[in-house]
């Protein structure tokens, strides 16, 4: 799967980020997914996003569960620590890792089976804790590695390659996350890198739980006529409602957006994202608007994409726990226990 | 038979009526008179309204297990009068609330019946329903104090310590003590022949439960991340960690915490968090019980194969399935030793009492990080939730946590390449790196097949090389785990071998058997894998009575599988009814086996 190394040669004219690194420095092993898999486009978007954010590779943790999507961490940023854990349990591993070191950037890559079936409980509770992470779902409506069973995100009426159409109610990760109180919810399409990269960047810089639900078609098991997760179907029905531009704190906000359509949102860390609203009426900082939009557009058969909801005012997990700023894993041992004298004293209550 | 400083008092109450603090007061008063005590809770899986018992064994000889008799029954629960009455040993006595006539209690003529109008007196002296119920409990402590000749000044001191900030409660509690005390004094011959007499056998000791001691141990070990899902009987462990951290782990300047306690959505998430935190360099642990181990098993296998430290406390309760959640057993030895699918085996530590719960906590973290593997501490409900007298806990200020083989940024900088699973030192333990330290330290952690270089593999030879190296590590673990407690004080060919909370019962049984001219050597294993000394001990005996608290002789099975002990020698003495084992169980079991001819 992931043992093929890429040549480490890069062209001198490749652009460099503030760390002096090129996109080549953010690449991973060669993908072993099927040719044309949507997940590989997501990988490319991830590489570009972390490159443009000037993230030091070793300060990035990329964590996953099990499945085609969960192989993704092997395909980007070789010099970041990766953790391919157990099926559906990426959120708990990320919670623990983040608890130990709040200074790092956490990207969790999951799939619709990993997050909406076996790992539904952990997905829900990572949101509840407002865990500071970018949670990316590569959503294709099927199980790939076990050869094409429907997942919980399969739409009613969508057809498998063989057998009967799905009749069960789909679980929409974006609507679920909204109901559960997620503080950054975006949806995109693997085939729309221009939209996806800034959404991932915003998700990484957002303080708290960010969901990026990416429709990422499965070319082998779910790209046929009658499938609602195929490339053709997604291209036909997806609609942007609010795209964003990510603005680095050192750069000024460009004033090229028409009045009333541009909406700057200041992130905790000092960065800014600028919303470019396609739908003038839509306000992604309103949870009620987001509910209404997702429900109405979903029933109309549309795939609503863009930044669907953002709330910068809720404390993330460490803030909620009132933890010290220093990563817990880096605290010197001497300060962690009060010594033998205090042990003697505290035992008086047990006499 | 009961005698001075050898008395067992059992108090039958209804749970949720506040009797725990009264019982604690009684137990502490005896302890402060210098007399060793054992305190056992027998409680239901319920919040309010069901029967509960607290048993205080006054043991001048300093035995640590529960007794097999009841000398004084304090029958405060009408629901259980009949069985409580039946349980009193001939010659013992029964104390009851005589506010209402209880003719059924008077039908034994071989015990003394002591009626004290506790409710009537408390109703006359105190206002409010809650206060009357609570003071009734304190009043029976007063009555027992008269019967046992306890020192009222000591009781008063204890109340003053408890209510230092609520002065008015000291007077009202003392008033209740006197109600019971004075009534008993004037109505019955006090003290009883079996009473308490001051001695000096508790200096330098404390009475504490194992969960509190383990939570304290985790703080001293420098644990920073605790993740858990509440489950009886382990909950007290995280409660204690939280209490001690609240006192000692809040940064005085910023008011910020230097620890994270995460209440997980289930045990699967709890162990996932522990592995994530440990992978990222924090000392991390989770307390749980048997059902939690079942849920954690998949992740425990990942920890074993991907070689990630983790500390798991399993406070065992009676299984299988939900079993009896408030009863004790040593029933998870096999499920912990071989938790998870595939070829896995795990390091286990077996504390025998709260003292070892404390000392084995830092040991567990040291071993987990040194061996880069999950380590489980197998306590049980008896140790975790009951009150044990132990020597005062001590801390060696020169202790430095063993973080194991972790490359620093400087070491990585000097290196050409880092490979995660190379056996550099030949002890089966590779070097690891922590995320966020150095780009050269990056590697891919996975539970799928991997080579010694850390790469994914489906190649047979590469896979097997790593899986075989883990066996080398297992043998290294054998040399690092705590040594068994072995005593060869008696020259003979038969012995008792046990573990954990069965220790106290076995030691008392050795004394009793000696009184019958049956002399046995003793071995208490303190860890799995078993040290070489355990194998040698078995080799030197013709018969080894393996005492454990489960039905299926799980310790015996481990001895056979791990060190190929001769199974014909290993004779099981089992106790598994959910109550803590006592010396009688061991003595009877051994005598039965001897009668069957299984003797040296």
Kindly state the mean pLDDT of chain A as a whole number?
A: 91
Q: Largest sheet of chain A, order of strands side by side?
A: 2-1-3-4-6-5-10-7-9-8
Any low-confidence stretches of chain A, pLDDT <50, length ≥5?
A: none
User: How many independent structural domains of chain A?
Assistant: 1
Radius of gyration of chain B: 27 Å
CATH topology of the largest domain in chain B: Pyruvate-ferredoxin Oxidoreductase, domain 3
Task: Please provide a brief summary of the model.
The complex is a heterodimer of chains A (351) and B (600). Chain A has 351 residues and is an alpha/beta fold. Chain A contains ten helices and ten strands.
Q: What does this 3D model show about the protein?
A:
The complex is a heterodimer of chains A (351) and B (600). By secondary structure, chain A is of the alpha/beta class. Chain A has helices at residues 38-52, 90-100, 112-116, 120-128, 173-180, 193-205, 231-237, 287-299, 317-321, 339-346, and strands at 60-64, 81-84, 105-111, 133-139, 184-189, 209-215, 238-247, 262-266, 272-277, 303-310. In chain A, helix 6 (193-205) links the parallel strand 5 (184-189) and strand 6 (209-215). With 600 residues, chain B is of the alpha/beta class. Chain B folds into four domains: 6-202, Pyruvate-ferredoxin Oxidoreductase, domain 3, CATH 3.40.920; 208-391, Rossmann fold, CATH 3.40.50; 409-480, no CATH class; 485-595, Rossmann fold. Chain B contains 19 helices and 21 strands. In chain B, strand 10, helix 10 (290-306) and strand 11 form a beta-alpha-beta unit. Chain B is globular and about 85 Å long. Chain B starts with 5 loop residues before the first strand and ends in a 5-residue tail after the last helix. At the A-B interface, strand 2, helix 2, helix 4 and helix 10 of A face helix 1, strand 7, helix 7, helix 8 and strand 9 of B.
